[in-house]
Write a structure and sequence with these properties.
The chain is α+β, with helices and mostly antiparallel strands. The chain is built from five helices and nine strands.
């Protein structure tokens, strides 16, 4: 009995250690936190670095920074396989911060219909699009948000047609919002479980004054 209890405690401590050791995405001034996808390749580093340099020049004002940066900033980008070494549809994870057309913190009541309309507009731009989940409300990191899951067809430069699935989440905060997208090709490599774990790890931390 004592041996079984010791083994159970060992497994519990091992599980806790795995949680603590999970790497996070690089810190950012917008307070967006998410676990870093394991064994994925980071992309867009130059764009991110250039954006953060402009943030310093805007005296740390997030609103002023976004206005000067065409209303958007790339937080992070990852692809599943090393760029230029994969011929198929490379799964992708990407997050951007986008400025809202308001000077006052947005309410979810105002944000929801605008976000749902934006998601529907995005979906219409793709060929043979269909919804798996229509634009709907969801809580992300205890924040009322909007998301959809959509499938569409795309053709690579080699002429190969792929059936792609996109999960897109819009998370409001203050006078801007986060747009986080997870893209895979379910018939070839279904990454649903990994994407769901990453979504559950998203948190918004308190902003520095």
């Amino acid at each position: 009995l004592m041996l079984r209890a010791f083994f159970s405690l060992f497994l519990l401590l091992l599980s806790a250690a795995n949680v603590v050791s999970q790497d996070l995405i690089p810190a950012n001034p917008f307070g967006f936190v998410m676990n870093q996808p394991e064994r994925w390749f980071s992309i867009g580093k130059e764009e991110i670095a250039a954006g953060l340099k402009r943030l310093e020049m805007s005296e740390g004002s997030l609103d002023r920074f976004l206005e000067q940066n065409q209303g958007k900033h790339l937080l992070f980008g990852y692809v599943r396989y090393k760029p230029d070494s994969f011929n198929g549809m490379n799964p992708k994870i990407e997050a951007r911060v986008l400025k809202l057309k308001t000077t006052e913190p947005v309410t979810f009541r105002a944000f929801k219909p605008a976000a749902e309309a934006a998601l529907r507009k995005i979906a219409k731009e793709f060929s043979e699009q269909k919804y798996i989940v229509e634009p709907s409300e969801i809580r992300i990191g205890d924040v009322a948000s909007v998301y959809h899951i959509s499938e569409f067809s795309t053709t690579t430069q080699s002429g190969t047609k792929h059936r792609v699935r996109s999960r897109t989440y819009m998370i409001p905060r203050d006078t801007y919002f986060f747009q986080v997208s997870f893209v895979d090709e379910p018939a070839v490599n279904d990454l649903s479980a990994e994407f769901e774990r990453l979504v559950k790890s998203i948190k918004l931390t308190e902003l520095k004054k």
